[in-house]
Protein 1
Amino acid sequence: MASVSSQPQFRYTQPPSKVLHLRNLPWECTEEELIELGKPFGKVVNTKCNVGANRNQAFIEFADLNQAIAMISYYASSSEPAQVRGKTVYLQYSNRQEIVNNKTSADVAGNVLLVTIEGADARLVSIDVLHLVFSAFGFVHKITTFEKTAGFQALVQFSDSETASAAKNALDGRSIPRYLLPEHLGPCTLRITFSAHTDLSVKFQSHRSRDYTNPYLPVASSAIDGSGQFSMGFDGRKVEPESNVLLASIENMQYAVTLDVLHMVFSAFGPIQKIAMFDKNGGVQALIQYPDVQTAVVAKEALEGHCIYDGGFCKLHISYSRHTDLSIKVNNDRSRDYTSPVLSSQPSVLGQQPVPIPGPSTHQFEGAQYAPPSDQQVMHQPSAGWATSAAAAGAPPPPPQSMPMQQHNHPYMPPGTMPPQSVPGMMPMQTQTGLPQSAAMPPYSH
DNA sequence: AGCACA
């Protein structure tokens, strides 16, 4: 055989290629900087940066071989070396003829996130919890879950890559808050990359996949209950037809729950159109109307079983109403139409709207929220809202209305990054109530 | 300062 030296001994005699190999680049050199460097010599059609163990190498590919030759020739005889950010960059022809795979799918932003849930109990995280977590950033279209060698993973589909990016930036590396998980679960950390998928295929609503854009998608046959109208949920609960109107019943109502309290609690998830309260079976119930089903679904999932006040008081039980549009005849202390300027301009029985209620304020969900370590102590504090009655059972009962469920800030949402469409009506609540921020008792502090 | 990775 003739000696075909595929591995040339002398790399400085590399034959020309339209791909150039760059080294000694500054840390985290960007594609833009590489293009700037090559642009005077021709058209840069592809780049790859952060190559090598030190991530200080890169490749740039020209449209034409002559352009690459021009760049090498120029710097071979130039008194000024090629530089990026003032750092000398060494150039040579690459031993390859084209850049392959410039970007991995994990680098290019898409509307679908690949979420790996880490932790011993990762696979016990329900799809509903994931939905709740990711819904903070926008409407979640679909979720599929699966187990691979990488562990328990989920694909979460948003409308667009901007929303997905916001969720990724906020949640990557963070842990799901303990209070969203069954008590015995260990920490569950989210690792998030972009998926190459753009539209997930969900055939059934099942314990491993959901399509929130299609509430009428058939439930997986394995989960169907014979009773007809209601099919069994994936976790054994009954599934009702979703509705934009929620029926909330209040259990253990030690303290008065006013219409305004309900408004504050439920408006965390979106604008409220109407509320009607009434007595039934010796307890108080309320119908809460949102403009759309999705908002109601998120509110129901977030609030079901939680207590408005710490200590297990005023526990909410929420189901979907068969109503779609409530008929509010008059605004009073039991019913209100927030969409009607005529009605709402009438003097309220309460004489104030809404009732300012002191309570924990907005810092609960900032940064530390998702910090993986040491949130065990959270459950031992008399925490603001979201405590399940069981979790809060040991806490001393607060005075009435001292601890309304926090509703000013949405879970998981770093302040300032909130997409306005995700929880409309939430920000105004902060100003309406005028709560002093300093009154906050962030249960997640430290 | 010396050639990448799904």
Protein 2
Amino acid sequence: MDRARNFMPGPNQELLDAKPLRSLAPMFPAPMGVNINQSSTPPLVVVTPVGQFPTGFGAGSLPAFGPFASFSATANTFSPAGTSANVPIDVTPVSAYKTRPSGVTPLNDDDEPYSVAQTSASERKAKRPADLAADGSNGVKFKHPKPIYKNHVAGKLLAFLPTSYSTPREAVEAVHMTFEALRRRHLQMDETQDVSRRADLKAGAIMMASEIRANAGKRVGTAPGVEIGDIFYFRMELCIIGLHAPSMGGIDYMSAKFGNGEDSVAICIVAAGGYENDDDDTDTLVYSGSGGNSRITEERHDQKLERGNLALERSLHRKNEIRVVRGFKDPAALAGKIYIYDGLYRIQESWKERTKFGINCFKYRLQREPGQRDGAAIWKRTQRWIQNASTRGTVIQHDLSSGAETFPVCVVNEVEHEKGPGHFTYTTQVKYPRPLSSMKALQGCGCQSVCLPGDANCACGQHNGGDLPYSSAGVLVCRKPVIYECGEACHCSLNCRNRVSQKGVRCHFEVFRTTNRGWGLRCWDPIRAGAFICEYAGEVIDELQVNLDDSEDDYIFQTVCPGEKTLKWNSGPELIGEESTYVSPDEFQPLPIKISAKQIGNFSRFMNHSCSPNVFWQPVQYDHGDDKHPHIMFFALNHIPPMTELTYDYGVVGAGTNRSKTCLCGSLTCRGLF
DNA sequence: GTTGATTCAAGTCA
DNA sequence: CTGACTTGAATCAA
């Protein structure tokens, strides 16, 4: 029923949807590669997308369209820099460009008006156009480095990276996903050797060295492809997607040209969350300048008006937009911290304050630009709900699962009057046609207490190809044809890390009414990439008793080959000298299992399809050994901010199914049918 | 489980 | 080109 309703047309997304799915962005032609093979430098193939990239500035004045709106702007249609800026500002980055490494040349070095290839600083200064503000448009002008995206390293195509990007969002997601995959794999290897070598920094270093990054070069204003509400768990993530360059420092700044003058201005700050005063006012932020603490000695001294502090001071006068990343203590994250991109702010005032150590420090009050959708505010709201579910208003059912799930699954309808989904019987389990005892048994390990990575005697580790599939934090490292969790036959305890999905749901979900796709599923908690989400519960359909009338059943799960984004979720092994685990659509082998959640099921039956999903399915075994009928478990494809609709790829039309439906996912890479 | 001290760090600017 | 500058993340002890 609900999936059937997905085909009603409708132009708008949910108000709370964190992703603006529609955009007017031009499609980039698939980039070509150029192989520059130098003996002294690693052979590199660089691909450069051709096309206009957004200025970054201006998004604040187009709140109705979200960050992508500016992307459609051409060189002559820039918007004023935000509603509150009456003063013409003309800014040109001066020291914004990383010097191109020797041996690496972008393919397209032509000089488009507002898109510049990377050149050396001296070259750039020499040819900086003097007429940037000549059109009197009151607009803000930038020259931006042309982003370089690579999917080749050492002359080899990296299977885990897309061959082309049609939007900055895709590029950012691919870079971010690659970072996370590398980080998980390094963590897995470190844990195998029982050492800690900062997998985040290691993954970041590989990304930097391979130049797999987005938005290289600095810019004032939005970072294309990074959306308000996007969440991060490591500072390096901000670095490689070009949101905030310093890997440690809190203030990112650059030198920019303002009319006839030149100034250093702040472009992004990370507010570590140490100064959270007013909980309800998420639109203002008091930020402290940096410095004053000597790392070596215990000495403290007054902060100086230089570097980042000076840039903030200049930004106060220049009134330029500053990206703000807010850090919060996240009780659910192991490191205890989560970073949320909260959009653009402007500095209102600055002052000096004497700290408790008796030193002078600079303070800056920042005001969030109006008209932007909520970022950190959503997180604060959902954190309250998690602590006390009754603070969640407009609930039409308090617990769809009637207590069957760890946490209540509420139902909300904020768009129309439908009182809830049609009747079904709630179950958290998948029901097999035959009893488990009659199915093939799963072999077990003899580990005492818990299985440990690197234990060559652990049969379960061997069964999974040598490594335990989950990190100590319970995050899946890599997609595989099947994951073997520890089960009944194992000697290890329930605390074993190789029992992630069988322990069930650990997040707070809600079923909500979408504007045009029936009911959907979203989560109050931020979910990190690789985290377990839920099982597809329902009845396993016995293929010996084929139900010919299942065309009426919109709740059937089948292992249809998903799109590229799902298939490429792996560890990026080529980057660290490991063999590719990529399975192409040609090689993809569907399983015979079919699960129907029409009569019985859990909340996963409300998860909608998207061609650009944030969730993927993964076969998992733990209570039987019939590899053709595994459990279907869902995991997060990337970090998912709270209240973002959860979607997975139902699969490519024509591959193993004769039913197809018009897709309303709105993704730019939408295949049209599923 | 939570908190504080301790240690080792990456990228960028000057 | 090198060092100074910035503080995060992980671990271990209390």
